[in-house]
Amino acid sequence: MPFFQYRKLFKNEKIVVGCDISAGMNNYCVAQFLSKTGLDVPLVFREKIIGTEMTTKLYPVLEKICDKTGREPLVAYERNNGGDRDIEVLAHLNRHRKYRIYEMKTFGNIEEKNPTKLGWDTNSATRPIMLTALKDAIDNHLIRIYDKTT
């Protein structure tokens, strides 16, 4: 079972989903469902599959979260390792508009027509910021993580 649920979701709960996809090679796809309302991680997806498989398993769960909470979850896919392709698939599957996809601001190209792009880029500039913020949240007990593997 790739989904691990640690508590029930409640009405009006705001969920943000961080997704790290695998390109295969015996690696895991992982999605962490962070509750901005409950300040915890009530749901985790983890499975040794490729990103496209995770996307097809994830989107119906995103729709159920919207139905249960009454709010559209925000999904942030990592663009690396083919994630940009899977983000496009996830966007296409969102026919009922039951979830939103994170848009990262782009910088440095004045000819860029769209100042954002779908998903999150993990690179030498963003990785330390992301990991420092996560470490601070964990060290200061600002979020509750139930999943031992996480």
In summary, what is this structure?
Helices cover 29% and strands 25% of the residues. The chain is α/β, with parallel strands linked by helices and 150 residues long. The longest helix has 19 residues, at 51-69.
Structure description:
With 150 residues, the protein is an alpha/beta fold. It is 29% helix and 25% strand. Strands 1, 2, 3, 4, 5, 6 and 9 form a seven-stranded mixed beta sheet that branches. A hairpin with an 8-residue loop joins strand 2 and strand 3. The longest helix is centred in the middle third of the chain and has 19 residues. The radius of gyration is 15 Å and the shape is globular. The relative contact order is 0.18. The mean pLDDT is 90.
In terms of DSSP E residues, the strand content is 25-35%
Quaternary structure state of the chains depicted:
single chain
pLDDT < 50 stretches: none
Q: How many angstroms separate the termini?
A: 16 Å
Number of helices: 3
Helix content: 25-40%
Q: Biggest sheet: strands, sense, closure?
A: 7 strands, mixed
- What number is the mean pLDDT? 90
Number of strands: 9
Instruction: Determine Rg (CA atoms, Å).
Output: 15 Å
Give the topology string: H per helix, E per strand.
Answer: EEEEHEHEEEHE
- Secondary-structure content class: alpha/beta
The shape, in one word, is globular
